[in-house]
Each structure stands twice: as C-alpha cells, then as structure tokens.
Amino acid sequence: MKIILYDTTLRDGAQREGISFSVDDKLKITRRLDRLGIHYIEGGWPDSNPKDMAFFERVTELRLRQAVVTAFGSTRRAGIAVEEDTNIRALVAARTPAVAVFGKSWDLHVRHVLNTTLDENLHMIADSVRYLKDRGREVIYDAEHFFDGYQANPAYALQTLAAAAEAGADVLVLCDTNGGSLPATVADVVAAVRRATAIPLGIHAHNDGEMAVANSLIAVEAGIVHIQGTINGYGERCGNANLCSIIPALQLKMGLDCITAEQLRTLTETARYVSEIANLNLYPHQPYVGHSAFAHKGGMHVNALVKCGESYQHIDPALVGNRPRVVVSELSGKSNIACKAQEFGLELAEGSERARQVLQRIKELENRGFQFEGAEGSVELLIRRTHADYVSPFELLDFHVLVRNRHNGNMAAEATVKVRVGEQVIHTAADGNGPVNALDVAVRKALLPFYPGLAHVHLVDYKVRALDGEAGTAAQTRVLITSTNGRRTWSTVGCSPNILEASWQALSDSLEYALLPGVTLADEEVFASLPIPERIAPPEPTTICLGNRCIEVPDLRSHKVAQQFLALLHLVDPLEERIQEGVTSLNERLYRFSPQGPEILRAVRDRARKRLRPVQSR
Questions:
Q1: Cβ–Cβ < 8 Å for 231, 7
Q2: Do residues 354 and 462 both lie within one domain?
Q3: Cα dihedral angle (210, 213, 219, 220), rounded to 10 degrees?
Q4: Which of 89, 156, 360, 483 pairs as cysteine with 510 (C-beta 3.0–4.6 A)?
Q5: 8 alpha-carbon distance from chain centroid
Q6: What local confidence, expressed as pLDDT, does residue 65 receive?
Q7: Sheet architecture: strand order including 411-421
Q8: Same domain, yes or no: 484 and 579
Q9: Which pTM was predicted?
Q10: Residue 449 lies in a domain
Q11: What's the domain range around 596?
Q12: Are residues 374 and 414 in the same domain?
C-alpha cells in the first residue's frame, strides 16, 4: 500500500509563532520538499494575503519532479453564491491542479462560529467542492474539527463527509484540529468512517496532546492512505504532525511505501535546511533527524554500541541521513574516549593508560563545573595532550585586564598579555569593547606573526552560565565558545569563579584547536591561488623594495606576502580602479597576515597611482 504524503509547512507550518516565510523562502522549501519525494505541497491560502498569491504566480516557474502544488481555502461563506465568493475565486485564480478546501464538521462551530444552520453548512460544503471539480481541480476536502465533531454529534459529522463525497471530493481528510484526541479514539473514528464511505481517507493531526505522530500512524493502521503534516512539526500552538518522524516510521517500521530509500537518506538534510530557512534552531533531540537523536553518553551504552550497532540504536542512522555520536562526560567510560579518539583520527586503545588518564581528567574537570558534551574541541585537545610528543603552540605567561569608566561615560577595556611561542616571549596590549574581547584581541595580536592562519578564526557564539546562582556574583561560571575558520566549526569550554579565567580557558583552547593539523589552511595553501610571475626575481632575505620604498622583511612568511603584492602588479590592468580593486581583494586575504602588510599595501598603491613599470625586487 502506498501512502500519500501531503506537506503543509508553507501554510500550517508558517502559522507557528516566530516563523515568517518570504516568497523566495517558500520557493526554496518547495524545491527541497519535491526532492525529498513529497507528493503534495500546500503553498498557502491565496485569498489571505498577497504573498501567498505571489507564490502561486511564481511556483509555476519551478520544474518539480513529482510534487503537486495545492492551494488552500475554505468553503463558500454562508448566504453567498459560490461563484461570487472571493475565497473560491482566489482558489481558481491560483491555477493549481489540486486544491484543499476545509469545511465545518462540528455542529458547535456551525452554530456558534459560522452563525448559520446545519443544512446551510452542508450546502456550503457541497457547492464549493462541486464548483471546483467542475473547473477541473482535484479536490482534497479537509473536515475541520472532525474528531471533536464526531464525539459531539456523529451523525452530523458523517453527513458533512457525505456532502463532500457526493459533490466529487477526491479525498476526505479527517482533522484533529484542536490536537486533543488520543490514538484509541482516532482508530475507532477512522474505522467508523471507513464503514460509511468508499472515498479514500486522510489524517491531519495537531500536536496539542503530544499525539500527532501517534494519531497519524494509528490512522494508517485503521485504513487511511493520505497523511498531512509539516517538516519538523512546525505549526500553530504546539505544532502539527511531524513528517520527519512519520516518514521513517512508515518506511522503516511499518514497511509501507511512500518515498525511495535514496530520498529517505536526505531527510536529516531537509529538516536542517527548512529550520535554517525558518531561522529556527533545529531541536537537537528531535527523533531521527536531531543532532542528538543518535548520541550516546553512558559508558555501558557506548561499550555495547562498539560491539553491536543495534544494541542501543533503533535504526541505522545513515538510513535517514544522520550519524551516531559519542558524547564525553563524567558518565563516560573508556569506550567513549576510545570512540572519540577514533572519530578525531587519533590512535588511542580503549584499555590504555592514556585512555584512563583522559577519562580521569574529564571526571575531575566536570566535578569542578566543566561540561564537555558540547565542547568537542576541548575533548580532542585533552586527548592530544596525553601524547608525549604533543607540544602546545603557545603558552600564556601572564595577562592583565583593565576596565575603566572614562570621563565621557563610555566604558573602555584594555588587556596586556605576555605569551611564549617557542623560545620567544611576546609582550603586547590591545583595546576591546569589553574585557574578554580585549583579551582576545591582545592574544591574537601576539600570535598572528607566528600563526597567520588565525586571522581566519573568529567567534560565532559565546555563552556564559552561572552554575550556582545562589552564590550571586561569586558563582562558579562556565563559558562555552564556538569558533569557526570558515571551513570547520568547533566548541571549547572553560570554568572558574572568575569569568575572565573561564573565558581565557575556552578562548585558549579555541585558538590552540585552530592550530591543529588540518584545521586551518597552511601557508602554502593560503598563498597558492595567485602564482608569482617568473620574471620577478627573488628578493634578498632581509629587504624588499617597491618603487622608492624599502621594507624590512623579517621572515619567509612576510617575504611571501610581499611577493604576492608584486605578483598582483603584473596581474591587474594598469588602471587606477582595476589596481585598487585587485589590491583591496588581495588585502583581505594576504596583507593582514604580516606585520608589514599595511606598509606594503601603501607602497603598492603609491606605485600603482604613479603607473610605474613593474619594479624588480632586489
């Protein structure tokens, strides 16, 4: 039996608080849902707002593989001829091959919300469905509040379905609009409806009672063939039935055909894509597709998982495009540490002394307030530091941070640091917009001449948590930093009663992690994109001249920067704007890596403006 998947993320999902899709957003999601294998995509309510109408005008430009785009609307209003109803006319104007029309099933709504008679409501349903069928549309009839209506007045609820069926509805969708029905009730009602009609049935469940997925699946067992839901369960109030849970359950648990195995492997990617478009963080513990859906923390669990993947996983995560993760914490065992080391590409035997040392260190630190579950950068460094050959790329010898209130009322922060790199000690200072930022800037200022790749590294998140709030300002503080270099993202942690010390611990780990092999581009990779013309003679080790300006070059790294600027002069057109454009773009990538960069840049611009012939280095 094939189950039809009907997605309403763009309409019902958009009713979630905090979501507002643009027309372009809707078009992007439509393409992705089609790629996933969704059969029907509800684009919106054309009579409700101009944005939805614009979507239906533009969606025809998409070359969809299989999905049928549907427009959504209500039955005609009471006392108005169907051909004169603006909502019905908008559904026709949307020019979609299929339309979804909802009507009232609950006599309470008919009398007290529509303020009309039960008979008039039946005519409203029949007139609307018949009118749309006569214009060649596939009609999906959504019986709103059907389960509540059936509980209150089963005979009338069934009459509403009969009115839609007799008018030609292709599918009758039973809606748990208030989301409060229980699975047993849903199963009984679906069975009763099946006895009353031969028209294919569907289910539209809301999640107010945390039963939307369960109600949808039990409805399938009771005989429905059409399921409506949203990606990530987005929807009004508590959300709608989550297709990211329903689809794998149908496919992998119930053996029912809905999408291909290849399409199923894109499920996690699709969930994350839609959450990104919606500007919402994907719930990490969401079944099947969440970041933590297959995360293992307990030492006993990980030990078993290493021996048998099925022991603590209900499916193979790869089937839905996800992957297992091992989390390191005070609850870990040596299996966790060995698995993480393998994940990092490091050799560490489960029963080794090094594994025991790492585990013991993690337990000690977590007892002090550290938390390594979300700080895998710090975990990898802990493992590497147990190796006898590992040498830290730098060492902070001392720092001093000063925050003062200036006479104009503006706060100022300044950090002074003393850092050792190899045999050299660098003593420098920097301002910042706060004490932590000043410390970050000062340390980078000291390290950049030695490690220019750090120029690519920046913080994307900085979280502070007071662990014992009752201690007030003396509370133990945990800092979690997330950093990126544009190619990779990692998180590090620090913990101390002193927020600056906790911040330094996390910041130091972040910078040290950035310098691990393979994390940040090597100098050769950074400079490889612009070849140096052969006609440029190699400069002497200590000095390079541009025009009448000579600049001391202290090391090979700055030497390369200068060569690149010379190469640039041969590669750009000798017109002011072209040279300026080339220098500016190269500036962002190269000159900041060298202390002489600004001086070199000024010399290049001087020579470019004078339109001198290329100068040979000497």
A1: yes
A2: no
A3: -170
A4: 483
A5: 20
A6: 92
A7: 395-405, 411-421, 424-432
A8: no
A9: 0.68
A10: yes
A11: 529-610
A12: no
